[in-house]
Amino acid sequence: MLKGLVGSVVALGALALLVQASAKVPQIDGDGFRKELAKRKGKVVVVNLWATWCAPCRAEFPALVKLYNTYRNRGVDVLVISVDDVSDEAKVVEFLQQQRAKMPAFIKKAGDSENFINAVDRDWRGAIPYTVVFDRNGKPFARLLGDHTFAQFEATVKKALAKRK
Amino acid sequence: MHRWQKAVVGVVVLAGMAFGAMWLTGNLFANPLPKGRTAPDFTLPDQDGKRHRLSAYRGKTVVLAFYPADMTPGCTMEMRSLNAALPQFKQMGIQVFGISVQDVRSKREFCDREGLQFSLLADVGGKVARQYGVLAPAGIAQRVTFIIDPKGQISHVITNVNVGAHGEQVLALLGKQPAGQALANWKAQLGKPIPDFQLPRADNGKMESLYGDRKQKATVVMFIATRCPISNDYNERMRTIAQEYMAKGVRFVGINSNVIEPVEEVAAHAKQNGFPFPVLKDEGNKIADHFDAQFTPEIFVLDAKGVLRYHGRIDDSQNPANITSHDLRDALDALLAGKNPPRAETKAFGCTIKRAR
User: Are B281 and B263 a contacting pair, CB within 8 Å?
Assistant: First the structure.
């Protein structure tokens, strides 16, 4: 009896590990980004560009998780896009799980970085962490270069929400 | 002869040579007109044969830079430095003249060779140099710069000319500001010249100017970091590209503007990676602000005249195996061949420069 219980616990644990290891983050390129943004028209969309190798990105990530959890039902969506190499996908998955990140997450598709950078925001030169807040019409409303706090993200989002359509 | 006798003779000969050199260039008998005096009027031709009368420039500040000889190393550095500061001089409405005793043809050659965009006056015979008290016994002018105010009076006499940074030296005096701050407002722009500046080297604290001896065919400015993984991915490439192109007459300068990376760490990092170029510490990120540099590694390439010709990435892949576009090499190859870089601006991912708040 006890043996069977231990066995099933171990089996469950192994299954959980397997699920975790096989979790996927969808890949995205410039066109994919435009589609994702268009889908969310009518919402304020916060897009954060980050990477597992970027220390300030990791540092500000909890603020983005909190932002999503606080504003997801209040007309705001948060998208996080990792610019890690696709071969580092496992690291990305691990970090997202560790952060209990539930927001839509993507990893940049291999290939042309410039096209992707310009699709996200023409004014962006590629430095991360970088966060663009798009207004309800899908136009850039604010650009935040470098790491920011929850209070700073929240203040920007509130202003974007207050803007008339 | 005893050994001590030989030593005495040696010392006497050396002293004599030094004295002779000083006598020839006149530094021993410097007696330039002092400030406050009215600047003697003159009319002299420039490199195009155009005649300039000093009194015709009343109402403007005039910089009159006497130098010994066209196309000699010190004078070349001095004139290049004045040339690089021309945009600032123009903005401030200041007229700049170089002046020496060689003739119009020699001036023409000097201007063509160095791409000088201001007038060099041919004071053949040294009459004007004598009037200003700067004619050396050898018949050439001493290196002295006079600044003449809009009323025609001498406001500054510079006898300790810093040939490598004379433009900044003059601007600093005119702006009544310490050197560096006179150029407070410049912003890097493609197609526009970058003024010279100085920053301390991370390894020994000595001031290093952007352009150094100004003999290079192009200058590469690289904003780099010690802790940014992307910048570090490029350490090896920065070292090899620099070695290769330094041999072709290109100057490389690394700049660290990250507030979180102390100077000792920057020096150790440069040494550890065998960087063959100086790495300068930009405390307070003033230079990064002038360039509007946002991330590491971020590259700026200036041509022989200091004009910004390329801005962006080293290449298009962090992973050397996946590079398809060698943008920095392409830009340098083009400039060295006298052509425009194939692309003036490129983008890539990098680490945001952590600025002082």
Answer: yes
